[in-house]
Design goal:
CATH class of the largest domain: Alpha Beta
Oligomer: single chain
CATH topology of the largest domain: TIM Barrel
Helix content: 10-25%
Structural class: alpha+beta
Number of strands: 35
Length: 738
């Protein structure tokens, strides 16, 4: 294999970390992570695997007690007990230290232990919730990953099968120190790579046979509507699909359909001129047939006489085919301007090599190949097990267009971080089936704005599309506002991209920062979006009478400011938050510093802005370092500190390469959360929207205006005959401000 296919690995453990017998080997990688191997032959594995590419952890601190019958290993985080025979339930156990109940905090070989969940391979044809695979976090302290069946990585960049019968387990015993467990995973498996900056903006994707003229005109329509995009995805109709059945189904293809795209390089250049990166969809399973433009070249490389028109079978287990597949089919299209590939693989999991998942293989080699010319690599494909975070971005598959699908996605996205998988891209708005519902579509775009990747997508149906102007006026207005907001967030997102590379995913469950708070586990759809924004998306329809959506939220201790409404909330409590269609609860912690692109400067593409609008949320001192580059590793770091007493933000001198930033970079400061809330006006707006009797509205409003305090008003409301939804919405405003 060529040098760019050789992943940097350090698979051999520090000898001081190894405890070994005739048929077992235990490696204490760090106090909370142990590798357990058993081999009847006494031959163990020191090559890298799909999961483990770096076992060269520093020498760990642990104690060993070895008697004739039992081996015990103690670290600050765990106690391992082993009878030194074949792994059995009674003979091998790991107990997490830290005061957990011994019944709950012990893992015994062969038995399942409670797990906080990870993610799933795909959401194809899913309507609602599905079971998740395990991650590396457990509320009771111990999680296990079985790496026995995956393939190995060889020094020459290829793969190898394992020795049959060997066991290879990794036990994560970090208690509720979830971030430490994740960082151990990233050390073992490799870090989450940095995404190209363009991937952080809005993506357009639709399964539809566009012409080049039609596609570029649509991009211009988005621009004229002031709706920014940064990635243009062209689904499978870019290539020939209506072919002679002799050559297959047309599902696989590598030859442009020149009836639709008469000049592909000019089309791709047109996208680039508009500031858009481009991606093409590929389904490779049917091989390469004689109708393909590249058939002669790849047939000759594979020893097939092109005159025979014999197909070149798709065999990714053949390294010669894999190199030819990339070099003859993909590289010429990349030379024409394709930036990355949507690898739409869903054709099974069987290969000639035992234990090899072809999806993982394609993700691995496509990703490495995409970085061969020094570009920041990127691929777009489904999840293929723990360790897949090395190959972003994830494509979650073809979901149904239903409220049930939307309601599952926040939990699915944040919980995936428990497997280290932080860059999911969902079909925002859903792919197919279901129904058109303006409110559903709007809520989905709002969630997409605060998702790892925001890719508008729809399936092959003339009535199924996600242009905002294809919906009612209210939905159109709100969708446009949130799509603009996504591009306003680019400075914040770019900084969080670096943070993800350093070991903390963009989207994380509430229990990461609050592992000992029971309430943190009761809000599965709520998450942190980066360091400072708490998001509680609304994923169910509005109440008919109040016209407000509602979501249960838990606010950690401290003060929180809603970035849309300006309402201030005391933390340390669980509340129901109510919002009309134009808003969802997004709360910034007091002292948060959030850098944005000014509204007037939002544009296509993802270039660094000339000005940054820095929003500061009053109530505490703050500190934030804005991290930027141009996908070229020339980093500029700009630290910002906020003094709450003085209401003053200081932008410090740039560290690193200041030339990375636009000439004359300027900063505008907005301090939020300082204006007093006009409580009666807020209540009036709720009542004015409500579909209910006007006399009752008047009684509520009079009570609020004349009460001695908002708290007294909230108590007095109990005496009125109000619906739960209206009482909750009004009480939220009355009791929001500390």
């Amino acid at each position: 294999m060529k040098p760019h296919f050789r992943l940097d690995t350090a698979p051999v453990a520090e000898p001081a970390n190894v405890v070994q017998g005739d048929r077992y080997r235990i490696t204490v990688l760090e106090p909370g992570l142990v590798r357990l191997e058993y081999s009847e032959s006494g031959v163990f594995e020191d090559r890298a695997s799909q999961l483990a590419v770096d076992r060269a952890f520093p020498a760990a601190d642990f104690a060993v007690t070895d008697t004739d019958d039992v081996l015990t290993i103690d670290t600050e985080r765990l106690r391992l007990t082993y009878d030194k025979g074949p792994f059995t339930t009674h003979g091998l156990s790991v107990v997490a230290k830290g005061g957990y109940h011994s019944r709950d905090s012990v893992w015994r070989y062969g038995l399942e232990v409670p797990n906080l969940g990870g993610t799933a391979r795909t959401l194809d044809d899913v309507d609602g919730a599905i079971p998740l695979e395990d991650g590396v976090l457990a509320v009771n302290g111990v999680a296990v990953v079985d790496d026995s069946g995956t393939v190995l990585l060889t020094d020459d960049g290829w793969i190898a099968s394992r020795r049959p019968g060997n066991l290879d387990l990794y036990v994560f015993s970090f208690g509720r120190d979830y971030k430490a467990a994740l960082k151990a995973l990233y050390r073992l498996s490799g870090p989450t790579p940095l995404l190209p900056r363009y991937a952080l903006g809005n993506w357009w994707s639709r399964y539809h046979p566009y012409t080049a003229e039609e596609y570029l005109a649509l991009m211009d329509r988005f621009r004229s509507e002031h709706v920014p995009l940064s990635v243009a995805v062209i689904d499978m109709d870019w290539h020939l699909v209506d072919i002679d059945p002799t050559y297959g189904s047309g599902w696989t293809g590598y030859t442009w359909n020149t009836d639709l795209f008469p000049d592909p390089p000019a089309f791709l250049s047109g996208l680039h001129e508009r500031g858009l990166a481009s991606s093409l969809n590929v389904h490779p399973a049917e091989g390469v047939h004689a109708h393909e433009a590249a058939y002669e070249a790849i047939a000759k490389r594979m020893g097939i006489d092109p005159a025979t028109e014999q197909p070149v079978p798709f065999d990714p287990t053949d390294p010669e085919f894999l190199e030819a597949y990339l070099e003859e089919l993909h590289h010429p299209l990349e030379d024409d301007g394709v930036d990355f590939w949507w690898l739409d693989w869903q054709q099974g999991g069987v290969t000639k090599i035992a234990g090899l998942d072809p999806l993982w293989l394609l993700n691995h080699f496509h990703y490495l190949d995409s970085g061969r010319a020094g570009r920041r690599p990127l691929t777009f494909s489904r999840y293929a097990g723990i360790g897949s975070h090395r190959y972003p971005i994830g494509f979650s598959g073809d979901t149904h267009i239903t409220w049930e699908s939307l309601d599952f996605q926040p939990y699915f996205t944040s919980t995936a971080s428990n497997a280290g998988y932080g860059w999911w891209s969902h079909d925002v708005g859903g792919h197919f089936k279901g129904y058109k519902d303006d409110e559903l579509a709007t809520r989905w775009v709002q969630l997409g704005t605060f998702s790892p990747v925001n890719r508008l997508h729809s399936g092959l149906n003339p009535f199924n599309t996600k242009e905002p102007w294809r919906f009612g006026s209210d939905a159109e207005r709100v969708m446009k506002e949130f799509l603009r907001l996504r591009h306003r967030l680019l400075p914040y997102l770019a900084t969080m991209n670096v943070r993800a590379h350093e070991g903390e995913p963009l989207v994380s469950p509430m229990y990461y920062d609050h592992p000992e708070a029971p309430e943190a586990y009761t809000v599965p759809n709520q998450f942190m979006f980066g360091t400072d924004l708490l998001v509680a998306p609304i994923t169910t329809p509005v109440d008919r009478s109040t016209r407000l959506g509602r979501v249960k939220a838990w606010l950690p201790e401290g003060e929180w400011v809603d970035v849309f409404t300006g309402l201030r909330y005391a933390g340390g409590r669980t509340v129901h938050l109510h919002r009309p269609i134009d808003s969802i609860p997004v709360l910034a912690r007091a002292g948060a510093i959030v850098p944005l692109v000014p509204s007037a400067d939002v544009s296509f593409g993802a270039d660094l802005p000339e000005r940054v609008e820095v929003h500061v949320y009053a109530g505490a001192d703050g500190d934030f370092t804005l991290v930027e580059d141009r996908d070229d590793e020339r980093w500029a770091r700009t630290r910002m500190t906020y003094d709450d007493a003085a209401r003053a933000l200081t932008v410090h001198d740039v560290e690193g390469d200041a030339a990375t930033l636009p000439d004359g970079r300027g900063y505008d400061v907005v301090v939020d959360g300082t204006e007093p809330v006009d409580v009666p006006a807020r209540v009036f707006a709720i009542l004015d929207r409500a579909q209910m009797g006007t006399d009752l509205k008047g009684a509520v409003y009079d009570l609020v205006r004349t009460a001695r305090s908002p708290a007294h008003a909230a108590l007095a409301l109990q005496s009125l005959d109000l619906s739960d939804s209206l009482l909750g919405a009004v009480s939220e405003v009355l009791l929001a401000t500390p």
